[in-house]
Queue: 2 jobs
Job 1
Amino acid sequence: MRSMDRRTFLRRAGGALLAPSLAGLAACGREPGSGGSTSAFTSAAAPPVRRAVAGQGGYGALAVSAETPEILVPAGFRVTRVSSTAHPSLADPSFIVPNAVDGMAAFPGPDGTVRLVRNHEITDGARVARPFGSLNVYDARAGGGTTTVELAIRGDRANRTVEVLLEFPSLNGTHTNCAGGPTPWGSWLSCEEITVERDRPHGYIFEVPSRSDRAVEPVPLVAMGRFVHEAIAVDAATGIVYETEDIRYRTSDGLPGAGFYRFIPNRPGELRAGGRLQMLAVLGEPAYFTVTAQIPGAVLPVTWIDIDEPDPANAADDPSAMFREGLSKGGAIFHRLEGCWFWDDTIYFDATEGGDAAAGQVWQYRPPRGGDPTAREGGELALIFESPGRDVLDCPDNLCVSPRGGLVLCEDGQDIQFIRGLTREGAIFDLVQTNGPGSEFAGATFSPDGEILFFNIQGSTTSDGPEPGFTYAMWGPWEGGAL
């Protein structure tokens, strides 16, 4: 699938290096001697990893949080738990918070409140799965969905309090709701990461308005694809929705890899009205292989190919059915695409196990501006960070961009887990750490005013699993660093 080497391809295609304003992030790469490939394509392009220290983008050493001793945070930051799975809600003791808190976004709520809409990646088998709410159930044999949490935030930074006012099911009876993303019109798109068939088919996206005060009518957005969904990001200028797919590239197991997609709605902001689904391909290089031997900062010209069957009949038996159509037409191959975020006319997304060290990549796609936003060609793809080893970045999953322009990356790796930050100049730093081996971090998102970072520790992914999950609010001197 690699018909020519990367440098030859870039030369023939007229490829360039990343624009100077984004060159800093692309400069992060492989640290000499840190493992991974030593091919000329990577070693020549990637300087040593840069670490952001306090006062230069980072926030300094981490220490055990006085209020939440299961995590470590920088000095000057406070953290409070707003929700604990398998425990009664702080707002409603009769409601037991479901397990497996994952992707999440924050929205302005009524009367100055903040609303979190939060996924629950519950993976129970058909014989034991039960919805955690009773209203508007999509499938009585599926235990995933979303909850909505309304918070009152009072006081200045030094005296801030966070009170949970409401916590309730807002999407019931879906399955393995991993990530998703916010829309500019105030809703959360919750994505199913499985294509099984129970009482109803799964593998779809569902829309949850953030201001709804009860469980929504569950309508699968079929035109947006039935596949192993992970996250979405909406281009605020065009209404185009970008989607990631979380499948490994491992041909020994028959796994062909993951695709990066865009959904062009017939009416922007009205996703139920349908639209066209397309898969990213690299112009002039069919089935471009992004997983290894990439050049940080190299700009790849992009084209988009139509997916004729976004709801394949055999999806329940073959989760890669839709991807295989795109691949047969030349779509690009990624390795486990997960987090996705729109900021500054750019889509950022990560490949959790991509790269020569299989420790993660961060990509950006820049749509063309001006002219027809649905044109097949004109966009640009670039690798802006590749982890040289798990000690630097261990399998990034959910991500977001802070209001000040830094990237926040939640790890889903091994042993001790981190939330890491990337500065706009390309330096990496630790922001939050588990106090010992722990579950993945997920759902990082800033409050509408940019003052509070909300995030999750996922915990067990079955409804009766023993490992607790938590939702946190964190605030402090963000102005002292890149976030």
Job 2
Amino acid sequence: MNVLVVDDEDDIRLMLRKVLEAEGHTVAEAPDAERAIEQLERAPRDVVLLDIRLPGMSGLDALAQIRDRTPEPAVIMITGEDHPTQLALLAGRRGAFDFVTKPLDPAQIEFLLDAVARAARVTHARQDAGDGEGGNHGILGSSAAIAQLLEQVRRVGPSQGRVLITGENGSGKELVAHAIHALSKRASGPLIKLNCAALPRDLVESELFGHERGAFTGAVQARKGRLELADHGTLFLDEVGDLAPEAQAKLLRAVESGELERVGGTRTIGFDVRVIAATNKDLAGQVANGDFREDLYFRLNVLPIRVPPLRERKSDIVPLARHFLERVCAAEGRAPLALAPDAGELLTAYAWPGNVRELRNLMERAAVLVEGPELTASDLVIWLERPEPGEEGTGLRGEIERREADAVRRALDAAHGNVTQAAAALGIDRTNLHRKMRKYGIERHG
């Protein structure tokens, strides 16, 4: 695999390079996020090992830009804390494959790289199969909230009006945009996406409008922008609330006139594009605060659609989890993994701050990493957000954590502190047991 190691500590980069190259991987290094992104521009990578705390742009801020690449690399976050921090958990909700803690365990990293390779096969199989199911264009669920959303999509899709999709991160806004485009008269035309949050300010205009050769340093040839590429189709502006004010003004003029000029050019180019915008922000509030142009807001908010968060459609959680598990197991060629009743209860009780994306990522991870015929609550709880170290868990999750901690202590006591023997008695590997010991603050004795 092609791996990019991003860490500001020279000795850690050197250690990872030696270990990974010895296992047959191709390794590149970067001491900060900015240079990592530059490298990814030049050469895609399969995996990025990304430290959370970096000079300049943090690893967490870089995560969104890295995941917006095509092809998208898997990102494994590195944290220097003994316990997974809220930053690491937030990274997981934003799409990081997993995280590792310092001091780094080469065996654990190699295990995760193998899991990435298997998960990539699952993703390719899902893409080959297509996400459209049951005529709902991949929008899954039978709750009243989803039924209402689907009815809105069916009404809005065939029209020519601009659409503003609102909803939390991971709730499925991009999936709704795809469904609207598929139902429109422009379905045979292109659907072009621009993630406004992942673009540096000095590149927004070039990405939207294109540029002519020599317009700026590095512009070695003319290039069409997203508006021009989407001609006779749909432009999906994801996270439009993050557009800089100057870009908002130029986008407004282009949308109103149907004309643009490339950066560094003088020729007027006409285009015919339907704009679908999405945001996880309160745009009306941004308008009131002067952070978003009122005239652009009204131009975009012709047909509003709100995507409900997963916590508002609890009846969909267990069926969705089973659906994701079934697809991953089939693509992986492994025996089906049943969802135990206590796991279903835990998933239903969880708040899902990362929404459907978090649930899907969790089920894919579980199907790849969990052995045995059944997925239980104790398998899942380590990957779900929990109180800070020292705080008591509550409800079903808290009870599961207390029982798991007791089981770890008993196994270590019975093995007189021998981690290998305790792990064997618990039916898990040493790395997993060490992670649980760190999680519960358990020291080995004997």
